[in-house]
Design goal:
mainly alpha, 14 helices, about 300 residues
């Protein structure tokens, strides 16, 4: 596996944007109903995404025969995740929610092995194990807190598992359309569905957003739905599943740290140990594999030299 500088830059930016977004979302749903917050962020993010795909001259057409598969990808990659995660965040700290949400790479590795026969190398299995221990450490002081809202913890884990399935499906999709075209239509469909849900269950709580609410919505509109979501889908479709999932395992660590700094959520020694383990998990995927020595003589090279000497 070879990661280009563009892939590495996307991974770094994605980690920063998504990691910092957990306390931003927690702050946002303190001022707006959760589904309304998410829907508003998507609608304001769509013009940003549209400007990007137009600037890149991406063809947005998707063949009608591919619509059923596109609907399935929308369900597993976006709709279930965004609905359940934002509802669960109400009863969880931002750090805890990030930790539970980013068990997704573990689910993805297991899903790929169980459902698609994907073989994991010993190094990748080690990365999954390191990530799993890291998540367990980050949850060390959170179990008692989850006792009051087990539905939220279970909901976040369920959303992570479905997102993991969606990542595997996206990797294997036969839709010929560009990934950004799929991202556009999945975001439109998810925004419509979430708006209908928000109107059905939250309309009595609607009110004019405050300045803080608008700031959190703007962050999500521009950086999450205008950049992070499409960047993730491009990586998930273009890289091996293990690389595109384990490589973002620093996001929950960043979410936990930023939640502590901005929202006063307490950190413990286990958090530092978990960050080290997350780094190990990333290294197992991003560290280049050994290749045959570049000094080895390629087949036929001696013959070529003899021919030239003659």
């Amino acid at each position: 596996m070879t990661l280009s500088p563009r892939h590495l830059l996307l991974l770094v930016l994605l980690t920063l944007v998504w990691g910092l977004n957990w306390p931003v979302m927690k702050l946002g749903i303190g001022h707006l109903p959760p589904l309304t917050f998410r829907s508003l962020s998507m609608w304001l993010g769509l013009p940003v995404l549209y400007a990007a795909v137009r600037w890149l001259k991406v063809d947005l057409r998707v063949a009608r025969s591919d619509w059923p598969e596109l609907a399935k990808l929308t369900l597993t990659n976006m709709l279930v995740w965004h609905v359940i995660a934002i509802l669960s965040l109400q009863a969880l700290s931002s750090g805890r929610a990030a930790i539970l949400g980013y068990t997704m790479p573990i689910f993805s590795a297991l899903c790929g092995r169980a459902m698609f026969g994907e073989r994991l190398t010993a190094r990748q299995l080690g990365g999954v194990a390191a990530a799993a221990v890291g998540v367990a450490l980050l949850l060390w002081h959170e179990v008692a807190g989850m006792a009051g809202a087990p539905w939220a913890a279970f909901g976040m884990l369920t959303a992570a598992a479905i997102w993991a399935l969606g990542t595997q499906q996206l990797r294997r999709t036969r839709i010929a359309a560009p990934t950004l075209a799929l991202t556009w239509w999945m975001t439109v469909a998810t925004a419509l569905a979430m708006t209908l849900l928000a109107a059905a269950v939250e309309h009595e709580r609607w009110q004019a957003p405050s300045a803080v609410a608008w700031a959190t919505v703007a962050y999500n509109a521009v950086l999450i739905f205008g950049f992070a979501q499409p960047a993730w889908l491009v990586l998930a479709r273009g890289l091996p599943p293990a690389a595109s999932t384990l490589s973002v395992m620093m996001i929950p660590a960043l979410g936990a740290v930023s939640g502590a700094l901005w929202l006063g959520e307490r950190l413990h020694w286990q958090d530092a140990a978990a960050i080290v383990l997350m780094g190990v998990a990333i290294g197992t995927v991003l560290w280049p594999k050994r290749t045959p020595s570049a000094t080895a003589t390629p087949a036929g090279a001696d013959t070529d030299r003899r021919s030239q000497g003659a």
